[in-house]
């Protein structure tokens, strides 16, 4: 019997209306998420990571955004075409998301308890107020928040960034989702709290069996926590691989550039840190060929003329680059 991934994205194209016209923030993205695995999506700011995530749960801003093409298959359903009422039952209960900044994701005028109880009220309408309170306390305890009863009475501005982030995780896990999307879950947190949050997310994967999409620009986070990696650049996928293959044998010049720019204790003290020259092309003025061509040290004429498609460069390893022979991915 053929194995079916938990989530499959096929040829996803998302556009936004701007003053310069319509631009594609995501252009032909596709990947799989296996049950119980952690998939990392990496890339510079603006590469389309968060837009891809918001497309999965259909929370793209309207009316400025639109899905031009593609399918997002979850348990045999295309999430892009099902009725919105059906999507509302999946969002939060089957697929949950931790947003980048908990201070903006949490409602400032309601205390934590009311916001957590809203999750249960939405997905478990028959649950009593007492049971909602008990479950909220249990979830805060599960994510390591001390004195949860008191925290439920507080407002977001009265809590630290680390506690707010844990509350967001608790809310996301309240319905025991099949998929957790964590969009830059450690943004603006200090290093110690970052490590605690990431350890919490990965340990919850072990205990609950859920699959996780971890979105980050930090390749160190990818290396330590993920099973597979999708590297994005300017709205497209540059490379996909399991985490060991990607770090040991990066194939796309962009991935190589990212890896060589990571600080290392093996490098000479005060040595100049390598960087990727140039800048990401504007979404309103994308080149016809490879979007990384102007920054690539291995660029050829074909790179500026024809957009490279993903091709197999190893077992389960793809790269969208003309340096490698054309093959079906």
Search tags:
single chain; 329 residues; alpha/beta; eight-stranded mixed β-sheet; four-stranded antiparallel β-sheet; 12 helices; 32% helix
Tell me what you see in this structure:
The protein is globular. The chain is 32% helix and 23% strand. The protein has helices at 49-56, 84-90, 102-105, 112-123, 129-142, 148-151, 161-173, 191-208, 219-225, 243-248, 253-260, 301-305, and strands spanning 7-18, 21-33, 38-42, 65-74, 77-78, 95-98, 179-183, 211-216, 228-233, 236-242, 311-314, 317-319. It has twelve helices and twelve strands. The two termini are 22 Å apart. The strands form two sheets. It has an eight-stranded mixed sheet with strand order 6-7-8-3-9-10-12-11, sandwiched between helices. It has a four-stranded antiparallel sheet with strand order 2-1-4-5. By secondary structure, the chain is α/β, with parallel strands linked by helices. α5 packs across α7 (161-173).
Query: Counting H and I runs of at least 4 residues, what is the number of helices?
Result: 12
Secondary-structure content class: alpha/beta
Write out the strand line-up for the largest beta sheet, numbering strands in chain order: 6-7-8-3-9-10-12-11
Helix content: 25-40%
C-alpha geometry: globular
**How far do the termini sit from each other?**
22 Å
Quaternary status: single chain
Major sheet description? 8 strands, mixed
Q: Using only CA atoms, what is the Rg? A: 21 Å
Q: What order do the helices and strands follow?
A: EEEHEEHEHHHHHEHEHEEHHHEE
Mean pLDDT: 90
DSSP strand count: 12
Estimate the strand proportion: 15-25%
Flag low-confidence runs. none
